[in-house]
Specification:
mainly alpha
Amino acid sequence: IFNLGHGITPDADPDNVSRMIEAVRG
């Protein structure tokens, strides 16, 4: 389970975060 602001590296780019979320959601 991914929680925004938790478990994500501070230097994570918004694009990378969005891609990761999309990948997790499927």
